[in-house]
Amino acid sequence: MHLDFASSADLARPLRLRLLALCCLASHLPLLFYMGWGLATGRVASAEIIILLLGSWAGAAILLRGIAALMNRSDNEERHQGLFAVMRQIVARRDRMSEPVSLPLEDALTGLPNRRGFLARLDALPAEQRQGCIALVAVDRLADHALDGGAGDTLLQAFGHRLSSRIRRIDLIARWDSEEFAIFYPDAIEDEASWSLARIAAQLRHEPLTATDGEPLTFSAGLCRWRGEPIAAAIYKAKAALANASNSGGDQVQRAGSASLRVSARF
After folding, report:
1. Is the pTM of this model over 0.90?
2. What is the CATH number of the domain that holds 169?
């Protein structure tokens, strides 16, 4: 009886002792009143005292068991609430983990759209605007120019700004790779895109960007016409043309498909 009552872990020990004393006092009140009356009048019967004592103990036992049952029920409810709270936290964490991760669409170095942002903008174009010319552009011999840790980033940042300031407002530019930039010329053919890149090259000669080794920057480019087919195919062809331009000495542009469509050996 007392052990059941004392098993409540949520009540402090002084409170449990006070409840125990209160229950015992309340259940023994009839016995105490009878003994007080008997002592005062001299009419005390031992049989009646025994009966009242047994009744008091029985009442105390019933009270203590009832209180212990109520406290156990309260403990169980609190444990269940705690379990439900833990389950809700687990479900909330699972939901957060299952949410799609928001990946950046902008390049942190240049402030231009990154590859993901570039492709997202192309995918968002209506069907009638999904045509033009794709160019991949890269600084020639960047590894040779970047003589210290931050020189390469500085060159790419300056070159990206120069490219973005020299194209049309309707053109889309992005940092495609660590050393490459992508440009989409809407509704343009290779001749128009080649002329745009040649104009940028001429401005670079007039207002050169100088590397840390003192050499002015030049760039190579690969072009491919895009007519709305999967963009990966056009990018692949433009990248192959860029590789040909770089391997042929740089400072030039080549069109995808044939060396005979190469614009010129030098801008």
Report:
1. no
2. 3.30.70.270
